[in-house]
Write a structure and sequence with these properties.
- This is Secreted protein.
- Keywords: Signal.
- It is a single chain.
- This protein has a 4-stranded antiparallel beta sheet with strand order 1-2-4-3, with no helix packed on it.
- Helix content is 15%, strand content 67%.
- A hairpin with a 4-residue loop joins strand 1 and strand 2.
- The chain has one domain: Rhodococcus equi virulence-associated protein (Lipocalin), CATH 2.40.128.480.
- The longest helix has 16 residues.
- The N terminus is likely disordered.
- It is mainly β.
- The chain is elongated, with a radius of gyration of 21 Å.
């Protein structure tokens, strides 16, 4: 019993001495966010696509974003893509903005499909879309997500 009480007192003293700095991060709730987007562009070894997106989060936050993708690889074509994206959980919508490293693939003759796996630090994003165009390729590059 005496050992148990001393452990509790020690834990309380340790928590007070750290100023509870670790607790707000652990206690802060996470939110999941999804994005619908439209992008269009071209590729010939270098791929450049630009567009817009709308992000909605489970905590009620929403944002319009600008999207700009630049990459290189074995790629050729031109297309317009509409799709959805799913972000890993974040603490706040503002964590989503920034540069993402992207690995993607696309293909199509009149009807196109596009898929990308992206990461920016601890945040991951998976994009999948359909559209129209004539294109084929596999690329490595970057996607920039900016507020509008």
């Amino acid at each position: 019993m005496k050992t148990r009480v001393s452990r509790i007192i020690f834990t309380l003293i340790a928590a007070c001495s750290t100023g509870f700095t670790a607790m707000p991060v652990a206690a802060q709730s996470m939110t999941s966010c999804t994005m619908t987007y439209k992008m269009s562009g071209w590729s010939f070894v270098y791929k450049q696509y630009d567009g817009v997106g709308h992000i909605s989060c489970s905590n009620g936050q929403r944002a319009q974003v600008g999207l700009s993708s630049k990459s290189i690889g074995f790629t050729i074509g031109k297309s317009e893509i509409e799709g959805t994206g799913v972000f890993s959980e974040v603490r706040n919508l503002n964590e989503i903005y920034g540069h993402y490293v992207a690995l993607g693939g696309h293909a199509g003759v009149t009807k196109s499909v596009d898929g990308q796996v992206l990461t920016s630090g601890e945040i991951s994003l998976v994009l999948s879309g359909k559209g129209r165009g004539v294109d084929i390729g596999v690329t490595l590059g970057a996607l920039n997500v900016t507020p509008r």
